[in-house]
Task: inverse folding
């Protein structure tokens, strides 16, 4: 199949509704004579030769140009033209032409000829083939056209979304009824009981689809002839109205057309296929029954295995439960012994704690008694210090009173003994000095007593 945007002027409409058209093609063979090559390492560019061939046939164009074979003396190309009318002018342009390639001093001599590989049937072929047959019977006369390499995707029902990508028989009949009334149509691809015999599975490059073969039997001879003449030398064209890039594209598929030489749609072969179909259906049914029986046996065996497996599983579970029970009992015994040891340790710790608590209580009691005694001693010391201080204050007060008294007495005597004032003053000063020394001695003595009392109190506290 070829995808192309080039259109031929000789296109015939097969089914405008389905976007199917017939495009004629003409193939030619082109031979380029390789000149004598002097030196080593030179290579021939097939691409350059093909570009020069395309330029040589202007204004005509190749729809397809490919390398057919390469030898030391010659490179053979196969070209396909868009129209049959361009065949003669193109052959005239190419025959005897010299091509000059870069890197070669000598030119390549060209020769072109028509490709005779497509041998399409003629009226003489089918008349001579059916000459000795009973032409009153369908299939024993020229009425059946065989078309191969039809793309399945182009004949699918657009409303049918399926993954098998099979053609629709009604669409095929509608398309090819253009040539005449169709009496019978058979697509081996749709007949699962005859796929292997007709070998319809051929790979096809358009969206990974398949090609298929169809046998079309026309009611009248004119329909058969018209179909053969219209389809031979043609490619089937499928036009896509919209693509992903929004452009219109045409795809081409080379189909094979011939008349039926096997009597595929005669009554004998139809009955034979029906009989084979019934036989295959019977064999299929027997195979299905056998498969069902085998499946039932397999299921029964599977059930037995499952039952045995369940029994073994239950036995294993029972053993596991017993083992688990023994492990649990052993674990519980270990746990009990551990708890006993733990209780003994706790009891021992409790006894130690009680002893420590008892000792702590005794120590606290002794500390409390010592503190009470110390408090009593402190209180006694404070009382003694207070009494001593009171005594000292009283002594000081007495001394002061005495002093005041003496001062009054002296003042009285001074008044009485005004004459003896100077002497008295000296006596008084002397007495004052003595009193001062006495008071200083008393104060010092008192301070020493106070310091000794405080020191004894501090020692008692410590």
Result:
């Amino acid at each position: 199949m070829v995808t192309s945007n080039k259109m031929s002027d000789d296109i015939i409409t097969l089914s405008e509704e389905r976007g199917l058209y017939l495009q004629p093609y003409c193939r030619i063979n082109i031979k380029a004579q390789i000149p004598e090559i002097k030196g080593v390492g030179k290579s021939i560019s097939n691409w350059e030769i093909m570009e020069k061939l395309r330029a040589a046939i202007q204004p005509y164009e190749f729809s397809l140009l490919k390398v057919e074979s390469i030898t030391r003396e010659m490179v053979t190309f196969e070209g396909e033209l868009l129209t049959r009318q361009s065949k003669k002018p193109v052959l005239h342009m190419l025959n005897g032409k010299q091509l000059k390639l870069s890197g070669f001093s000598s030119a390549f001599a060209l020769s072109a000829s028509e490709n005779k590989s497509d041998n399409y049937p003629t009226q003489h072929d089918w008349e001579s083939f059916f000459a000795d047959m009973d032409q009153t019977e369908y299939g024993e006369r020229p009425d059946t056209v065989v078309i191969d390499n039809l793309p399945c995707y182009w004949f699918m029902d657009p409303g049918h979304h399926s993954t098998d990508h099979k053609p629709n028989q009604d669409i095929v009949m509608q398309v090819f009824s253009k040539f005449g009334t169709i009496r019978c149509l058979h697509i081996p691809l749709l007949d699962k009981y005859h796929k292997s015999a007709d070998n319809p599975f051929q790979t096809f490059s358009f969206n990974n689809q398949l090609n298929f073969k169809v046998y079309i039997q026309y009611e009248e001879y004119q329909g058969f002839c018209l179909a053969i003449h219209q389809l031979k030398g043609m490619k089937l064209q499928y036009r896509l109205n919209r693509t992903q890039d929004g452009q219109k594209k045409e795809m081409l598929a080379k189909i094979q057309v011939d008349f039926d030489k096997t009597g595929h749609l005669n009554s004998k072969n139809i009955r034979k296929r029906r009989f084979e179909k019934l036989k295959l259906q019977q064999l299929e049914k027997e195979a299905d029954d056998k498969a069902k029986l085998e499946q039932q046996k397999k299921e029964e065996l599977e059930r037995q295995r499952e039952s045995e497996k369940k029994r073994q599983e239950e036995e294993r579970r029972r053993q596991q439960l017993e083992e688990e029970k023994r492990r649990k009992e052993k674990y519980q015994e270990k746990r009990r012994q551990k708890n006993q040891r733990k209780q003994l340790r706790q009891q021992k710790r409790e006894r130690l704690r009680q002893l420590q608590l008892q000792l702590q209580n005794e120590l606290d009691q002794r500390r409390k008694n010592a503190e009470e005694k110390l408090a009593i001693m402190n209180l006694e010391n404070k009382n003694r210090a207070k009494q001593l201080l009171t005594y000292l204050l009283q002594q000081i007060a007495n001394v002061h009173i005495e002093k005041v008294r003496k001062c009054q007495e002296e003042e009285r005597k001074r008044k009485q003994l005004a004459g003896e004032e100077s002497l008295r003053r000296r006596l008084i000063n002397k007495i004052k000095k003595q009193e001062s020394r006495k008071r200083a001695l008393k104060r010092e003595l008192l301070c020493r007593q106070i310091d000794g009392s405080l020191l004894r109190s501090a020692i008692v506290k410590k």
